[in-house]
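Methods — Computational structure assignment.
A single polypeptide chain was analysed. Its primary sequence is given first, followed by the predicted tertiary structure written as structure tokens.
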Amino acid sequence: MADLRIGVLALQGDFGAHATTLRQLGAEPREVRTPGDMDGLDALVIPGGESTTIGKLIASAGLEPALRSHHEAGRPILGTCAGLIVCDAEHLGFIDATAKRNAFGRQLQSFEADLEVEGVGDEPLRAVFIRAPWVERYGPGVEVLSSYEAYPVAIREGNVLACAFHPELTDDPRFHAIFMAMTTAARERAGEEARR
């Protein structure tokens, strides 16, 4: 099977670190800045940054229709930190959840924590929280993969995976590996449907 083609929205945030992690896992990362950059992608990462700014940049680049087509086709999306907010029900509506911005505090309250995350094995995952949101509300179809101080910080619904932390800022690729597995499964399903 050819390498998974995973787009990384490259409008703001540390998209380069996501690309590095994806490349280490055997994917072919592509920076996404225009609707045409979305063509042929198996999945998409919406990285951290500032959620209001990212929303405005998506609008000014004319990317929203392409993002919606990607989501409606069942191709996976990973939203991290601000990307979680961009995907939530009050923004693009890709996941039945709402996030509270800067829930753990501003820049000075940034911290790291060891999390138990469903799907990454028994070893805790070191998570970096920077002006992080948390999930305030989620619907019945949303699976909570991890919580911190009783607040959900990693969730999944269908082909959307989202987290409040920055998995690209550590040397541990296991959260991205969950996303890679989702992407592989989605591509296999799409291939089976195309052969019918």
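Note: The chain has a mean pLDDT of 94.
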